[in-house]
Amino acid sequence: MPEFQTLGQFIIEKQADFPYAKGELSRLLRDIGIAAKIVSREVNKAGLMNITGAAGTSNIQGEVQQKLDIYANEQFIAALRSGGECCIIASEENEHIIPINSLISKTAKYAVAIDPLDGSSNIDVNVPVGTIFSIYRRLSRAGSAVLGDVLQKGKEQVAAGYILYGSSTMLVYTTGKGVNGFTLDPAIGEFCLSHPGMQIPKQGSIYSVNEGNYVHFPQGVKQYIKYCQVNDDISNRPYSSRYIGSMVADIHRNLVKGGIFIYPGTAIAPHGKLRLVYECNPLALVIEQAGGRATNGTERILDLEVSKLHQRSPIFIGSAEMVLAAEAMLAEESLTLNRSYLD
Ligand code: AHM
Ligand code: MG
């Protein structure tokens, strides 16, 4: 008997929790796991081969595409296309949705949104990167799938997760019944259950934010950062500041150790930087399922209306009590602003 349960065995076992399931979601998760292994192999070769650096193109956000962004995008699309369970893909790297028009996918039930390689500007310097994925049940009934199939509120996700290409490669996912983490054992080429039933501590002592943007932050965020830095034995402050600049890695660390990740809106970029459909929503589902909290400062991320594929949202995500404290300071800021209008 192997010491660890593999991802494949785990998925099949969990399928029994859904008595009417026909195995489509299980197969879709398996397809994502296969693409993850291929991308992991390539990421681990970065530096040895001519696969790092910019590809000479930009994506719809105007961001420089790295060669590995394009490679990861192709691998996930190919795996989802050939798997037959996905009818449409939305990717950070593609301006428009990618309908999958094969005979089998016409009846496929699931829509997938992905950020194939998040934080890829870090790849040249050997810093962890990740893949983020989000799965919805298809809403359209017949013919080709449509944009509305992926533009659903985050709370409608049937599964979501991420792959972290770090010191080891991990796949962490939820189907709405808790969060489980798997580590890739390179010797056998399998993801093995290493972190069952992940729970984020209610209170942590790490805050993650790009403080270089401090001057542009709303007053409430500035106040929360100052609060994190104040000496207080009872609440174990000052907290540690940890910011990798790879959202998956920052959120994974905070999930394991307890902490808050913040990417706020600013006067220059009121909606922040991170994308709702394939970055904020999937990570919000994972963190909520692990007992944490994710908001845009005032509203739950998973309840936000989605109107555009590449829509951005501010995000405050992590240990529930830390997110609540940050929200309270933002609320105080808007109260003060309202009062000054009335004066
Ligand atoms: P990307 O999707 O282009 O890789 O950008 C997303 C990344 C996140 O992983 C990370 O949290 C953030 O950008 C860092 O942005 P910044 O450099 O502004 O702090
Ligand atoms: Mg990204």
**For the CA atoms, what is the radius of gyration?**
20 Å
User: Going by CATH, what is the homologous superfamily of the largest domain?
Assistant: Fructose-1,6-Bisphosphatase, subunit A, domain 1
CATH top level assignment of the largest domain? Alpha Beta
Give the strand order of the largest sheet, numbering strands 1, 2, ... along the chain.
4-3-5-6-7-8-9-10
Task: Give the strand content.
Answer: 15-25%
Q: pLDDT under 50 segments (min length 5)?
A: none
Q: List all distinct small molecules, including ions and cofactors, that are bound in this structure.
A: 2,5-anhydro-1,6-di-O-phosphono-D-mannitol, magnesium ion
Distance between the termini: 73 Å
Q: Mean of the pLDDT scores?
A: 91
Q: What string gives the helices and strands in order?
A: HHEEHEEEEEEEEEHEHEHEEH
User: Which CATH architecture of the largest domain?
Assistant: 2-Layer Sandwich
Oligomer: single chain
Category from helices, strands and their pairing: alpha+beta
